[in-house]
Amino acid sequence: MDEAPAPGHRRRPRYPGNNPRRFEHKYKELDAASHPDTVAKVLAAGKTPAGSHVPVMVAEVLEVLQPKPGHLAVDCTLGHGGHAIALLDRITPGGHLLSLDVDPLEITRTEQRLRGDGYGPDILTVRQSNFGGLPAALAALGRSTADIILADLGVSSMQLDNPERGFSTKAAGPLDMRMNPTRGISAAQWLQKVSSDKLTGILAGHSDERHAGRIAQAVAGRSFRTTADLVAAIGSTLTELSADERELSTRRVFQAIRIEINGEFSALDALLRVLPRCLNPGGLVAILTFHSGEDRRVKKAFQAAHREGIYSDIARDVIRATPEERRTNPRSTSAKLRWARIC
Questions:
Q1: How many domains, the chain?
Q2: Which tens digits make up the pLDDT trace of 82-97?
Q3: What is the CATH number of the domain that holds 300?
Q4: With left for phi above 0 and alpha for psi between -120 and 50, is residue 14 left, alpha or beta?
Q5: Which tens digits make up the pLDDT trace of 18-42?
Q6: What is the three-class DSSP state of 72?
Q7: What's the pLDDT at 162?
Q8: Hey, CA dihedral for 64, 69, 71, 75, is it positive or negative?
Q9: Of 201, 233, 261, which one is at a domain's C-terminal end?
């Protein structure tokens, strides 16, 4: 007979089988406080601990935006709060940060954590909104313009890692991909309705997929229950490619579908249109992009506004993560930073 646990002792939870399948049971680093050694080991291997997010190019963002005490700053993508904390540290005392995020699940968790760390409503306002809602978010704060604005367009590690969100190409989960799971239709529902021709254009336009036509013919109008089902269908269509090439194509397909069902390009275009009227004279904006479709939009918008005399200066060259950061945080490899200063 097993001995009863000592008073106050809490048994380690046991999960069926040798290899837990559920995301929340699988990774020790999800409970970082209880497993600091595991977190350190994951970071040392150049990976991001599951359930967390390492902010990209923080030093470069701060150098570009030049946050100062008293500034009103906007973080258009709160995510895990890494950039937000860096900005808060530099705009206080006297400053205020307005943080936006469209994901109701992550924004709630991050706000609770930041409040617990002492960032009260006097210095931090959190609002669920996409980029296009920036003017309304400022108005709700009693302002129309800010001193500095940051938009990090990357998908957070928490979203990518959790199979239940449907973004992952490496673990089976419901084929969802919605940033806000309470709105719109899932990726599975969208794929059932989309035509092959439309999907071909989306795969080519949103992610520069070279095999867009073949993949679209294989998956458009079909029913896929899980992410693994879609991964398998893509792989079986590209059998002549190497495993690495198939994986890259699969990631591009997921990226393109995610962009489409979340209206990411529409939200970015809306942000680029409203930015000039949301900045104080001399104010700065910085935008982090993670694929060519985003970067092209930002580059062209900044260049056009500069020619029109709306921006007094813009980044002449794209800023990339340092080799050291790309080694320790692989998700920074594709990041591109551009900035502009309003007249």
A1: 2
A2: 999 999 999 999 999 9
A3: 3.40.50.150
A4: beta
A5: 444 544 544 444 444 454 465 445 4
A6: strand
A7: 85
A8: positive
A9: 261
Find the mean pLDDT for residues 54-78: 96
* 328 pLDDT more than 80: yes
Query: What's the Rg (C-alpha) of the chain?
Result: 22
Contact by Cβ (8 Å): 218, 224: no
**Cα distance between residue 93 and residue 8, in whole Å:** 43
Here the tokens at position 218 are 């294989």
Statement to judge: residues 141 and 218 lie in one domain? no
Q: Which residues are registered as beta bridge partners of 288? A: 152, 337
> The pTM is what?
0.83
Crossing angle between the packed helical segments 292-307 and 196-207, to the nearest 10 degrees:
70
Strands (E), the chain: 72-75, 96-101, 124-128, 146-152, 279-289, 311-314, 336-342
245-254, long-range: CB < 8 A, 24+ apart: 247/169, 249/209, 249/210, 249/211, 249/215, 250/169, 251/169, 252/203, 252/207, 252/208, 252/209, 253/203, 253/207, 253/209, 253/215, 253/219, 254/167, 254/169, 254/177, 254/227, 254/230
- Rounded Cα–Cα distance for residues 247 and 226 (Å): 17
Residue with tokens 């320790």: 328
Mean pLDDT across 269-279 = 97
Give the bridge partners for 174, in sequence order: 226
SS percent in the chain: helix, strand, coil, step 5 = 50, 15, 40
* Closest by CA position to 281, among listed 243, 260, 311: 311
**DSSP secondary structure letters along 321-341:** --HHHHHH-GGGTT-EEEEEE
Residue-range definition of the domain harbouring residue 218: 181-261
- Pair 191, 224 in one domain: yes
